[in-house]
Amino acid sequence: MDSTEIITRIKNKLPGFDALSIAQNYPDEICIKISPQIFKDTCYVLHKILLSPVMMLFACDERKTASKFVINSVFVSLKSGQWVTVSMDLPQENPSFDSLAKTIHSAGLFEREIYEMFGIEPKGHPDLRRLRLHDEVWPQGNYPLRKDFKQACEGNLNEYKFNRVEGDGIFEVSVGPVHAGIIGPGHFRFSVAGEPIVNLEIRLGFTHRGVEKLFEDKNCFVAMRLSECISGDSSFAHSLSFVQAIEKICGSVIPAQAVYIRAIFLELERLYNHVNDIGGMAVDVGFSFPAAYASVLKEAILQLNYNLTGSRYLKKINVVGGILIDIDDAKKQLLLKSLENIKQDFNELVKMLYSSVSFMDRVDSTGVLRKKTAEDLGVVGIAGRASGIPLDLRKYFPSVYKEAKFKMAIQESGDVLARLRIRIFEFTESCRLIDEFTQKLSEGQKISVTPELKEGVALGYQEGWRGPVLYWLKIDSAGLIQRCKIVDPSFNNWQGLSYAVLGNIIPDFPLCNKSFDLSYSGNDL
Amino acid sequence: MTIILKIILFIVLAPFLSGLISKIKNNLRLRKGQSIFQPYYNLAKLFSKAEVVSEHASWIFGVTPFIVISSALTAALFINSISGLLLLIFVFALGRFFLALAALDAGSSFGGMGASREMFISSLVEPAFCLVIFSLFLQSGSTNLTVASIVSGIALFLITVAETSRVPVDNQETHLELTMVHEAMVLEYSGRSLALLELASYIKQMILVILVARIIFPVTMPVFAGIIIVAAVVALLEVSVAKMRLFRVADFLGVAFVLGIIAVVCAILGV
CA dihedral in degrees (A296, A302, A308, A311; nearest 10)? Predict the structure, then answer.
């Protein structure tokens, strides 16, 4: 699909549509600039014709250079494998725009984020409470992502207001942010009638580190390391998305060998996380033998990672223009041999779980997220595919995966079992992909190129193990980052969790939570 | 004198049984596991620690550990006489009643959840427990291994699993505060009080395991061997099934109840 086609389709639905400018800087990205008056309607039309949730919606502060704020909204067109960005300029005095949240639910959280970080008001938004800057410690009137923000100024502190459910026999159970296990901090406010959950409100933001601000004015080579720390369990997916954006801007052509090696590492990251989650589900239902078995298997994969790269969590191996670690023949043998053992052990694990009546009874029909709800909330990744949303970037975008005839996992029932099945299917598929990619490797090939830095804007995207990891990047000619917007799949999926647990009993919550296994730090940024 | 000796013996040996079960469990899971004496170290540590008490707690919170440990020790004195067995149920109930009160007393949300779940489970445990003891009354005088004794032994084993908060009813090892039953009730306790409560649950477990061993195995077999076998079965069960969904516990204890009825009928028929 080229840009003229998409404009025609928008015009069919929206006769008054007129674009200020249309650009297609890369084959997989279309940017449409429009005026603020038609922003809301255009987004709605795109949402409908592309059947895409709002994948990203964020602001940029360009007051210094152009005296304006810019709002970008990114949609994905799976059919053609492209990203469509709609952007508009807002004046620097009293910036505001019409909220999309009431017509496109998946925009809701993004708009709250824009409001708290930039002070740009989405008019008509039903809920503008702050997500990350907690009212108890952050005074009103601080907008940290504005360029002129240096330090929080004093002001009134408020108390966060939870949504209350009232009625006979309803009481509240508050859990967190400090938990009994070693997990990230999050506050869960359950409203329950006996054991069944009537409402769950999840309050996050406790690990907010201001990473988007930290990226700014950093050299993009230095910022590489930062991107690995956004969410520790997806460090490779994050760094890969980040370098992809830079490489698109620089126009670097990555050697084939490096592309395959990167894909192998991305799949290895998926393997250890999937096994970890499957074991975690067993832990959460007190099924301790498979849990112990899975932890042994996870350790085997981490050690394989270490032997291949020197890093158990695949850090410090990506660079702009390629990769630092080559997989030579010795490593290739090691990889293939370990993979064979891992596959065998994994099949044992799956057999153990599927043949246990007590386990299957716990996971079957627990924590159902219906397809319609998932679509409205913009749930992506494993959780989305388990509810029947066929969104996997590996399938739709031209890449080595397409050559390898990648098969996407999909389930309809949306329960814990469906999310388990997705993981099991993907594990096997990833093993096959690694096998296939390894065959393509040969010794002594070039594994990186030196990039030529340019000024520009691009979107980096990878299907991490949890879901799509998106980086929207703007750098100047010196390679300094002007704006880096990160969307981790956890961001919208947390909402999905709060809907999936409704009607389930409280003791089943940890299981539902584990089946989503979302990142706190990836959400809090 | 024998009473004091018996009490001391229970206090000294009960933690060992817990250590033994967790050692077997860990070995079954291909792990080295903690030392078999770990429960003793834990108790020693807890006894020497200061206590933190919620500001909302009343006197009930303070006296509960003493009531619970006394009830467990009282129960230990009655396991030798058939006529004393019925008392077990009431003595256990006394401890549980106060523990549930104390859990509500501290005012944390987990205590309330734990207490309500414990009461739900105990309302299912007690009828089955009564039936098993009736059956034992009817069998009294016979030392033979009969159908009635085996069935009542199995029923009591299921009750033991529920009463000692083990998988598939509860999970002692869990860190997930939302799924806890017994652990949620004692979550607010620390230091010496927690040590007393832990010790009480070790003793309770010891009592039940001894009962099961004595009912199922012939009198010629040493009690000690019987205890180890029952402990091994408990451990095996714990690693081989997943914990049940909370409301499924009714089915599990329903089986114990039905077995209890069968045991009574068999005892009446004399088989």
Answer: -150
